[in-house]
Amino acid sequence: MLVNPLYAKTSDAPGLETAKGDNADPSAFLAPPYMNVSTPLSAQALPALAFVGGGNMASAIIGGLIRQGLPASAFEVIEPFESTREKLLRDFGITALPAASSTLTRCGVVVWAVKPQAFAQAAQPVRPFAGEALHLSVAAGIPSGSIATWVGSERVVRAMPNTPALVGQGMTGLFAREAVSAADRGLVEQVLAPTGQLLWLAAERDLDAVTAASGSGPAYVFYFIEAMAEAGVEMGLSPEQAHQLAVGTFTGASALAAASSEPPALLRERVTSKGGTTHAAITALEAAGVKASFKAAIRAAEQRASELAEEFGKA
């Protein structure tokens, strides 16, 4: 399979850190810091939207907006790969373009879904047509200050989504530069509503922690599901049975944690009777240092996110 050098197919790569342009006043945010937006859209609810890159994350957003009532004519997509353009046409009725053109001037929002190492190059042909737009980056690894320089606008919002956004169950961290208005934030919330839950951050540097905890987080969950399923097979279950049990357990436990006002530690303690099977398992995990190792792994992801800022984020 060819790898597009400019346009991201997923957005599970680590995010980046910079303190430049931090907005330290969370009271100015339009919505509560943690929210799940699900208000249906009318065809007139959003301006025309441009997507630079038409891969998985772009398709998740586009598909969700179309399901909520936005017509295909509301989108302009720049996607150099013919196979991806064909998929956009087949799935959504959108005729994507291979390169930027004056058609972008009608768009009030530009969503950047490009690979971080090629953001600057991708921005050059778009900049002449999108100077007045609000810019929303779902590309990992680029500080908002660099984005502002490359696109020629201070109206920049960085987003760190994760792959469950592909099924409308994502968790996205958001940071807005000071030039982004409350109305702009509301517009971003509408655009990202189909992807799942949104969390506004007051400091851009916190996107590193978001990247480590939730941006890369689905991989941790898949890792544990994989281990649980393998253990089930080793104990005599079929692969299908083991997979169903592992996925169902994570789904149910996550739903319970979300619905409960009690902390996860207490929920865990309630199913951990001393001398019982769960107690034996937790004791084995603690003896192996699993919690400490897991926390160290997340900090390693945070550190890598910070390092990537130096590699890809210099304007």
How is this structure best described in words?
This protein has 315 residues and is α/β, with parallel strands linked by helices. It has 2 domains: 185 residues, 3-Layer(aba) Sandwich (Rossmann fold), CATH 3.40.50.720; 89 residues, Orthogonal Bundle (ProC C-terminal domain-like fold), CATH 1.10.3730.10. The chain is 44% helix and 12% strand. It contains 11 helices and 8 strands. It has an 8-stranded mixed beta sheet, with helices on both faces. Strand 2, helix 1 and strand 3 form a beta-alpha-beta unit. Helix 6 packs across helix 11 and helix 7 crosses helix 8. The longest helix has 23 residues. The protein is elongated. The N terminus is likely disordered.
Throw out a few tags for this protein.
single chain; 315 residues; alpha/beta; Rossmann fold; ProC C-terminal domain-like fold; eight-stranded mixed sheet; disordered N terminus
Write a brief caption for the model.
The protein is α/β, with parallel strands linked by helices and 315 residues long.
